[in-house]
């Protein structure tokens, strides 16, 4: 689907969607337990993949109004009757791969072309260290994956600089093993706030995780039971970033964008508030009410390390194309291993809009003073975050910007374009 965004001014009050990261973890946590209700979940293409996996393991997920009722598999997943298709969801793949290692038989996981190109080797090696079976059918550390063996716990050594989701997967599975799992990190942990999210969710389900000198430890023999049988999902700061950026670059004169649902949590991507503030916008965050207000501002370039906040790179790059001076995004090599190579994608597509960009393996620099954005046809690269960030740039590009692959926002923010429309943007679609 092509989506066309004209140069626009925006204003109004909108609500951020629920967190995708929390929803994934909550669905699987409920699956590990007996019964639980998840309130305010994000229902999207990615989280539906996790729901399918819980069902394949012997649980069930029933959708109601703003809630999911989950009957779990009580710590021991059944051997699925078929291959589990994780579609485009890397989070689903990694979380359920460790879960599959608990099964007595073998589980097979696959997904679309993009997912089958993403690295899973360190997680497979960790399962092997736990005496489970974990193989890539092509021998390249990528899906399709064959996993099983009924792991009972133990100690694993794993790199922390490829994906924090490996750590999340092992912690979640380790809680229901007999011995528990101790994780020794071989390198610095990248995207550490995502593990903080995991620990927060597990705590909400009554599961204890311990931090150690070398990594993490989760005792075995635990059960997943949220207090009162319910777990509430907070708003998503990754998705909020596009709305806040839209306000900073395109709010109408004398007006602003107000984003609801912004209560504090462990989400590292809440850093977007400080980033936009550091670029010169007058951001007001009422943490008690959970509201962030952003008016348009004359932005200046900044330097941002995205080691812990990889999902913010596309948003920051779009902001940099509008700001004066250089915006330097550092420590970003791991952002190349997402739904697409997001470093290269933003460099190339912003350049198509007239931005001046310098790309290096671990750094992206956007030269805002040398950029003059003009509407053009750009490619969303089948990646929800690329699509939404290019839409932000399109708000200030001269003329109209047409983004190919607009339907991919369904991964994390299904109502994104409707939300832009509520702020005053005339969005048109075709194809």
UniProtKB/TrEMBL annotation:
Q: Name one GO cellular component term.
A: cytoplasm
Q: Pathway, per Swiss-Prot/TrEMBL?
A: Metabolic intermediate biosynthesis; chorismate biosynthesis; chorismate from D-erythrose 4-phosphate and phosphoenolpyruvate: step 6/7
Catalytic positions? 311 (proton acceptor)
Q: Which reaction does this chain catalyze?
A: 3-phosphoshikimate + phosphoenolpyruvate = 5-O-(1-carboxyvinyl)-3-phosphoshikimate + phosphate
Among the GO molecular function terms of this UniProt record, one is: 3-phosphoshikimate 1-carboxyvinyltransferase activity
Top-level enzyme category:
transferase
Q: Where in the cell is it found?
A: Cytoplasm
InterPro entries in UniProt: Enolpyruvate_Tfrase_dom, Enolpyruvate_Tfrase_sf, EPSP_synthase, EPSP_synthase_CS, RNA3'P_cycl/enolpyr_Trfase_a/b
Would you say which domain of life the source belongs to?
Answer: Archaea
Its job = Catalyzes the transfer of the enolpyruvyl moiety of phosphoenolpyruvate (PEP) to the 5-hydroxyl of shikimate-3-phosphate (S3P) to produce enolpyruvyl shikimate-3-phosphate and inorganic phosphate.
Q: What is this protein called?
A: 3-phosphoshikimate 1-carboxyvinyltransferase
Query: Which organism is this protein's natural source?
Result: Halobellus salinus
